[in-house]
Amino acid sequence: MYKKLVAEQIYPHIQQYVTLDEVESLIEKPKYVDKGDIAFPSFTLAKHLKKAPNVIAKTLAEKLNHPLFEKIVADGPYVNFFLHKQEVSKTVLTTVLKEGKNYGKVPLSQGENITIDLSSPNIAKPFSMGHLRSTVIGNAIANISEKCGYTPIRINHLGDWGTQFGKLIVAYKKWGNEQAVKENPITELLKLYVQFHSEAEKDTSLEDEGRLWFKKLEDYDEEATHLWEWFRNESLKEFNKIYELLQIKFDSYNGEAFYNDKMEETIHLLQEKNLLESSDGAEVVSLEEYSLPPCLIKKSDGATLYATRDLTAALYRQQHYGFQKAVYVVGHEQSLHFQQIFNVLKKLGFHWANEMVHVPFGFILKDGKKMSTRKGKIVLLEEVINDAIELAAKSIEAKNPSLPEKEEVAKIVGVGAIIFHDLKNERMNNIEFSLEEMLKFEGSTGPYVQYTHARACSILRKGSSFKEAAALTGLQDEHSWNVVKLLIEFPSVIEKSFINYEPSQVAKYVIDLAREFNKYYSHVKVLTEDEQIASRLALVQAVTIVLEEGLRLLGIQAPKEM
Ligand code: ARG
């Protein structure tokens, strides 16, 4: 925010040598707080002016002055700018209050579409921890992109196709029970799938039967299609319970199966551009020039692959949404796959392939080991979320038993705790999963931020009686200044977190703001009737606005009372 202002002050004095953007890009934050709030190094100018940087800094500092700066001084080769606390805090608080939840918007786009491929679980299998990560990281990136001016399109690329459905049909026809599947679709279907594999070890003909039924499915056989649709619907109903708890909505559930009748065209296109080569009977696109293994397009038996579907999906999405950027939030174990897809599209000559990004992330660990959803060790995510809600309900019962709408708040706190615990970590890090840890009301947790927000709201309720008493004059004490400086940073935090596809930057920011606000509150008496009451209340209100908005970007709600 003030970087621009500084650049605009300096620019007129040196415009024959550098552009305004260059000036802005040179501006830094001094290493030590006593050196001021913003610094301009004059090294670059030295070679243009053929003068020593110290001399340049001194001459510049003497020429500059602006009401928002208390002093502007040269310090060696640097010009250091000290913000005028009172004036700046007055401007910032007025801006935040005026803009409300629009504060922090960054104009990176004029509403262009950005597709976010997120969540994308596999039908008839449990919703895994990896899918949870993809869901919450993807949703946060979508929210943050919207704050930066984009129109996010959330796409759930369901894993609803593949040979496993042939096996599942065989298993269901042999050992399945309709009622049981209806009652517990995921558990039952998984059981059938596991049973299929253990029986197939003894009886190899089962594999053939599985292939046969998958072939039937591909040929639109009525019975096969009917069973597949049923498995898909029942699974989706289960997944939707999780999405409902997380309050996440998708713009499209077009999964792998959606592209069945669209892949011929993709293969045709590859042929037309002479990109298909046969290799052991299979059709591949060589990616030698990118030092990558070839991308497998069609197997020797004619079956298409995961990659063929993703290529087709990309073409469809470009046609349908004309996306400006396409983001894929998928675990890092699929990095090679996405590199291959993006490069095949480049070889096809699509410039938009340069705007496609794989956003990978690490594992969720339990006691240092990867949390698995296979076989006996299934962790049903819905149960995990419900446990978190229950724990949150217990804390609320202990802290504030008379709270209205306790159940609703417990849900918001429990779910918020899980989301925050994920997002506060840089996404590539592995995360240790601990319900107790994530639900603490102290420390770097979602409940801590929510609680701070609720506390600020309660100060505002108490303060409403003397709010109009004085004018907003700004603040200059050290504690409020630390809060104000963070408020100033909000837009640039959002921008950085979008550019790096790193919601953790927003999560860390809300933790910092909550901490700084709590420090402020323990040192300063907000509710005293004096000439600064309006400014202090404005500070509290600005904090509630930014905390609520920061949490919203992460996909977390902020109750007014806790
Ligand atoms: N269903 C896949 C899996 O669980 C993830 C799909 C990711 N999205 C994509 N367009 N490939 O591994």
Q: Summarize this, please?
A:
By secondary structure, this protein is α/β, with parallel strands linked by helices.
Question: What do these coordinates show?
Answer:
With 562 residues, the chain is an alpha/beta fold. 55% of the residues lie in helices and 10% in strands. The protein folds into three domains: 2-83, Arginyl tRNA synthetase N-terminal domain (Gyrase A, domain 2), CATH 3.30.1360.70; 113-364, Rossmann fold; 381-554, Orthogonal Bundle (Isoleucyl-tRNA Synthetase, Domain 1). Strands 5-4-9-10 form a four-stranded parallel sheet, with helices on both faces. Strands 1-3-2 form a three-stranded antiparallel sheet. Helix 7 crosses helix 10 (205-218). The chain is flat, with a radius of gyration of 28 Å. The mean pLDDT is 94. Arginine is lined by residues 117, 120, 122, 157, 159, 310, 328, 330. InterPro entries: Arg-tRNA-ligase, Arg-tRNA-synth_N, Arg-tRNA-synth_N_sf, ArgRS_core, DALR_anticod-bd, Rossmann-like_a/b/a_fold, tRNAsynth_Ia_anticodon-bd. Belongs to the class-I aminoacyl-tRNA synthetase family. It is found in: Cytoplasm. Keywords: Aminoacyl-tRNA synthetase, ATP-binding, Cytoplasm, Ligase, Nucleotide-binding, Protein biosynthesis.
Give the termini separation. 33 Å
The CATH superfamily of the largest domain is: HUPs
Task: Write the CATH architecture name of the largest domain.
Answer: 3-Layer(aba) Sandwich
Mind telling me the C-alpha Rg?
A: 28 Å
Q: Output the CATH topology of the largest domain.
A: Rossmann fold
How many strands in all?
Answer: 13
Percentage of residues in DSSP E strands? 5-15%
Count the DSSP helices: 21
* Small ligands present: arginine
CATH secondary-structure class of the largest domain? Alpha Beta
User: What is the count of structural domains?
Assistant: 3
Mean pLDDT across every amino acid position? 94
Write out the strand line-up for the largest beta sheet, numbering strands in chain order: 5-4-9-10
Tertiary shape: flat
The biggest beta sheet is recorded as:
4 strands, parallel
- Low-confidence segments, given as residue ranges, are none
* Sheet/helix structural class: alpha/beta
Amount of helix: 40-55%
